[in-house]
Amino acid sequence: MATETGSTADEAHGTATPSRLLGHERKEWLLSRGLWLVAGALLVFLWIPLLVMMFLSFAVNASTIFPFQGFTLDHYAATFADGTLMFALWNSVQIATLSASIATVLGVLASFALARYDFPFKELYRTFGILPMVIPGVVMGIALLIYFRTLLGIVPGFLTVVLTHSVYGFPFVLLMVTSRLYTFDESLEEAARDLGADPLTVFRDITLPIVAPAIGAGFLFAWIRSFEDFIRVYFVKGTMDVLTTSMYSMIKYGTAPKMNAISSFIVFVIAVVLAIAMNVGNVAGMVAGTEGDS
Q: Residue 63 carries which DSSP code?
């Protein structure tokens, strides 16, 4: 009675409890606006430096925005005419493709082992498989340099960079493919075997098409990680140059026009590749196992 009386008195005097002042709809509105604000701030923080760099790559004055002196394509022409820089770019493309391919083959085999079989020290194997992703680049680069030179007697160069990036890309494939296999409906394979399909046919016609987007996504991430890596490759490259080390030299010697141009070109290419990967065939949904969910 006292509660009802107090409530009635509050309403009579035009006052309300805090829950009435901040109702459900009001909370939803504040939460929505807060999330939009955070998302907007993140986009501004991430994209403004990239947009400035892209703008300067087309500006006559490649060092500062002001005073603005007009647009030009001369910086791009000079960049793609630089034989040393283009050779370093070609090295990066080859290394990224080879290392991502090796990481993908090994990562797929390891993923099936982890998802389908039980064996001693399985969790330890999984942990060591993911470890190259979280080990600091300096530590990994120095450790592999010592391993290649001291224990294997391999001179640092193209091969050592490929092997290093294969190790670095392996966890990305492992995580992508195992996450897909854990949500895989194995009854599809059992139905195919019941209908007389041999194991190779089951894998080719049932298993592979379903896990292929995850494999493709793992390859893509391994390729990008290799292509953009600087710290690890710096220790194991020997006298060879890749794009990231060439860009580091450009920073040291202040060649801003070419630096802006090649950086903008890389951002554009990677953005296009990611956009295609995330939209064609719903790679993200198939990797997560949510394709077709309403």
A: S
